Target: Cytochrome P450
Amino acid sequence: MLTSTRVCVLDIPNLDAAPYYMPIEADTPFPQIRIPSGHAAVHLTRYEDVKIALGDPAISRTLCNVEGGPTFLPGTTQKELLLNLDDPAHARSRATISKDFSPRGVETLREVVDATVRRGIADMLEGKRAPNVFASVLEDVTSTAVCHILGIPLQDRPMFQQWSRIIQVVPPDDVAGIEVAVKACYSYLMEFVTGQRAAAPDGFIRRYVDNRRNMHEPLDDAEFVGVLLGILLGGDHNALSVMTKCVYTLLCAPSLWAHIVGNPTRIPTMIEELIRLIPIGKLSAFPRIATREIVTSVGTIPEGSVVYANVFLANRDPEVFPEPLTIDPERINTKPHLQFGYGIHSCMGPALARLEISIVLNALVAMAPSMQLDADPDSLRWINGTVLRRPDELPVRFDALAGKSPHSIHASQS
Model:
């Protein structure tokens, strides 16, 4: 019989970010907030209401991505990005990636991801790489996977990661820098599509471009690059942020780490519990505009309203997840968490993220079971961007006799 170890997520230092909005007084049955663009937005936090907002095609993303539109970002983003499209344009673009990003599709990456992870851990244990699990292991995983998916050279990673990091951090005082990075990233991908750069023949880019002549209404170059931008940005930095914070949480709570070391079959359940609770950045979804009245549990939202569906709080709804702030590695959910979204704008990469995190945790458990955080969590360097927020280092040690870090969280056993 397993002994469950349960930790409060609020006890993990710096994991939660301060809300990137301000509550406002409003004469409405539903709460409202002020988002960074200055717009008032209906603030939905209950699980069922958030599902309604994310799943209803009458709540538009396209209408937000205009000059002066409601946003958490300094300005508009590429109109062809999947996150900015409504149906039918969204369904047409989304269809291009459905096979490659399915659970079966991402299985083709298992061998290369596993080899990348194990090589990084082995080099770290042998002293060939620094004892920093982020820099020596995690940072290579998602970028390597993205390169193999798209069929772009591994040696290009330092170049495109610099651009994508600027785009994902979204510093509000560097709009010009963001525009330069977006243009560079867009041009880089377009050169593969047009043949100015050589993409691998078995990669996603080349396969799609070579097969367009056989398709009914294929995407044009700009539309296709919009899809590729989503893969490059989300598949690398978004996945890396979630993975890093999963490992960080386990290092900050040694009882949780010890639980999966002793019970590796519980790793999939632990992953889902961590994903449920871990915020990717300072926002959990992008705002939308209701194109008709929307009925929710907190009232009817008028047509034309800006809506913010707070996935972060929905995943902590006590009506759906008992003791919602508890990281319970044996939690059996009757309803799935919403971290990967819901409806047409659900994340394209949940199968890939789960595969990568599972491989990382299984390899660390097998090869470095004595791993411990070798720093005060409050001393770690973080990236604190709008979309991208994570530790930028995870120094570790592997001395099984060293005992628990004095800065570790001592969780109660149940």
Notes: Confidence is low (pLDDT under 50) at residues 401-414.
